[in-house]
């Protein structure tokens, strides 16, 4: 597995209700690994909030929409925290960020969580790396119709700031797996799953 430069770091945070935003976050992480970034992927509620406020590296947010334009369950605590009136207006003045939303334009509140998050991060002084991406289930290519061109813009902007130290890792080279599965000896059919703390999905 190729090693990433310690200075080339990305934090990817997702809010996912059914798993699509999480899958998208890990897809971005694999592309980042191929570009020699060290990547950490977590749900927004799982992440240390202060790691976002003190981040010296870019943070990429991926969030879906649930219900009538509501935030996914594993994003709500993080979102409520961001809405605190006590947070200084320049608290995120050192943050570079990007936001991609997953939604369905047939609903009136299309991608509201992503739109609100993008606006709030800017209100707190954050600087967007690229414009907000709005994935739409109604696109004839599905979410990829917006995700693929957005990712092209994202990597172009990031590589302008963090030039490649070596060529992009080809698709024929797979990242290390995120878990190992071992089967017990004898007649025990139970699988023992040893989850490794990996940064990338298999």
Would you summarize the structure shown here?
With 202 residues, the chain is α/β, with parallel strands linked by helices. The chain is built from 5 helices and 8 strands; from the N terminus they run βαβαβαβαββαββ.
Description:
Helices cover 28% and strands 21% of the residues. The radius of gyration is 18 Å and the shape is globular. Strands 1, 2, 3, 4, 5 and 6 form a six-stranded parallel sheet that branches. The protein is built from five helices and eight strands; from the N terminus they run βαβαβαβαββαββ. The model is unreliable at 188-202 (pLDDT under 50). The chain has 202 residues and is α/β, with parallel strands linked by helices. α3 links the parallel β3 and β4 (96-103).
Distance between the termini: 12 Å
Please compute the radius of gyration using only Cα atoms.
18 Å
Residue-averaged pLDDT: 85
Low-confidence stretches: 188-202
Strand content: 15-25%
Q: What topology emerges from the helices and strands here?
A:
Layout: E1 9-15, H1 20-34, E2 38-43, H2 49-53, E3 59-64, H3 76-82, E4 96-103, H4 112-123, E5 127-128, E6 133-136, H5 144-161, E7 179-183, E8 191-195
Keywords:
5 helices; 8 strands; alpha/beta; 202 residues
């Amino acid at each position: 597995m190729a090693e990433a430069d310690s200075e080339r770091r990305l934090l990817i945070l997702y809010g996912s209700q059914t798993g699509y935003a999480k899958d998208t976050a890990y897809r971005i992480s694999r592309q980042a690994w191929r570009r020699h970034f060290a990547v950490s992927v977590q749900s927004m509620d799982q992440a240390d909030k202060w790691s976002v406020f003190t981040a010296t590296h870019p943070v990429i947010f991926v969030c879906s929409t649930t219900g009538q334009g509501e935030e996914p369950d594993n994003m709500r605590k993080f979102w409520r925290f961001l809405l605190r009136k006590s947070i200084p207006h320049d608290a995120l003045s050192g943050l570079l960020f990007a936001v991609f939303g997953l939604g369905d334009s047939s609903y009136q509140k299309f991608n509201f969580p992503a739109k609100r998050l993008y606006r709030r991060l800017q209100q707190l002084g954050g600087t967007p790396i690229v414009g907000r991406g709005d994935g739409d289930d109604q696109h004839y290519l599905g979410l990829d119709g917006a995700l693929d061109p957005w990712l092209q813009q994202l990597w172009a902007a990031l590589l302008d700031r963090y030039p490649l130290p070596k060529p992009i890792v080809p698709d024929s080279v797979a990242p290390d797996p995120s878990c190992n599965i071992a089967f017990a000896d004898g007649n025990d059919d139970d699988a023992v799953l040893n989850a490794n703390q990996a940064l990338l999905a298999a």
